[in-house]
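Fill in residues.
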């Protein structure tokens, strides 16, 4: 990075809900970034925690603590943080994503050294001591930021950098859905002419989910996706056909490709188990789409 006088002010915004087990390590990792501490503010938005999350945040110096409790979802909390932010560059970071020491510096450099308006950083998965099949599958198929950006010019919001003019143009996140609105918002920014790019060096570490939490996440995300697609001119008949198609048993090519690109050699030996999880995930996702599809049209009636 250039000399200190040229550093932009950055606002890092994190929504939290009952995060007492993660918050100390998370804030320590943020406060130990290589980017000069006087040039970034940390805004943590509590979304109605009932544990000791707030008390733990208050024990850390130089943290801006906000609260948003009328709507309980990460988008409402992010909007609250964005409304308080003073930075020229805004950064969204989830509390379960642990940033590497050069994470912030690298993301800011990518924004300033290229013509990008938004940067989605790398999310690298970590495993528990048990290293379950569910965790393997999660790390293979989900939060592939490069793939999301390359294919659809949208991405997850858990590790996202963007210029203030993007927020001024696109506006806040929709708050009436629990999942999927980060994809909706970044897609909206891309359609407005802003450039979204991927950066492997703006890296955070994310714990892979075991099987049951993973399936709950798949269903929840699925409920938010129909709004993204239908608002971007997908024909409803096409979405219905996609729902039905998920019940067709898949091949193994996608899994093999993901293992080759993102996985470990030993995953190949357990391909049948991972295939079974893959098929079940498709069915659960379809059920989430069905709920989101119904919710979309009921909200318009």
């Amino acid at each position: 990075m250039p000399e200190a006088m040229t550093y932009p002010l950055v606002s890092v915004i994190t929504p939290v809900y009952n995060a007492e087990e993660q918050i100390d390590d998370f804030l320590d990792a943020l406060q130990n970034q290589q980017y000069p501490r006087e040039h970034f503010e940390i805004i943590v938005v509590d979304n109605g925690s009932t544990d000791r999350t707030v008390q733990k945040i208050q024990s850390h110096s130089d943290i801006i603590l906000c609260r948003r409790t009328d709507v309980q979802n990460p988008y409402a909390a992010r909007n609250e943080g964005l409304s308080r932010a003073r930075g020229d560059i805004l950064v969204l970071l989830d509390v379960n994503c642990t940033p590497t020491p050069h994470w912030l510096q690298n993301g800011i450099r990518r924004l300033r050294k290229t013509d990008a308006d938004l940067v989605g950083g790398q999310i690298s998965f970590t495993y528990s001591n048990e290293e379950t099949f569910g965790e393997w599958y999660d790390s293979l198929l989900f939060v592939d930021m490069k793939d999301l950006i390359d294919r659809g010019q949208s991405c997850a919001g858990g590790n996202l950098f963007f210029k203030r003019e993007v927020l001024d143009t696109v506006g806040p996140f929709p708050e009436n859905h629990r999942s999927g609105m980060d994809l909706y918002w970044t897609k909206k920014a891309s359609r407005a002419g802003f450039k979204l790019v991927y950066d492997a060096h703006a890296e955070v570490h994310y714990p892979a989910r075991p099987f049951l939490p993973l399936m709950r996440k798949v269903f929840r995300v699925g409920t938010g996706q129909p709004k993204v697609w239908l608002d971007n001119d997908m024909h409803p008949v096409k979405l219905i056909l996609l729902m039905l198609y998920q019940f067709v048993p898949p091949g193994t090519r996608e899994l093999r490709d993901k293992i080759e690109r993102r996985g470990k050699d030993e995953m190949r030996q357990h391909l049948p188990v991972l295939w079974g999880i893959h098929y079940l995930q498709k069915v659960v996702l379809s059920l989430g789409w069905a709920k989101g599809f119904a919710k979309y049209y009921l909200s318009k009636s």
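Residues 271-298 form the longest helix (28 residues).
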